[in-house]
Write a structure and sequence with these properties.
There is one protein chain. This protein has 98 residues and is mainly beta. It has a single domain, classed as Metal Binding Protein, Guanine Nucleotide Exchange Factor, Chain A, CATH 2.170.150.40. 0% of the residues lie in helices and 56% in strands. It is globular, with a radius of gyration of 13 Å.
Amino acid sequence: MALRAVWRDFVIAEADDGDVKVVEGNVYFPPEAVNRDVLVESSRHSQCYWKGRASYYHLDIDGTQLADAAWYYPKPWPLARKLKDHVAFWRGVRVESV
């Protein structure tokens, strides 16, 4: 089985379920499974007490932007090292089984 992240019928990421990481109910896709053509760096950051500092992406699909719809940990703290550069989604992006 595979999982994919979809917004407005556009597949943003797709990976076998064994390749994704699920943490606190969020699905983190490996970097190579994400369509980077639709990601735009955001200036937003947040802090998790055990994962570290998260960075965000906007989605830009066909000229429509969804602000801060994805996040990742470029330098996660040791307990979250398996999440390094994996991308998770929210704000209307749905993750579905394929």
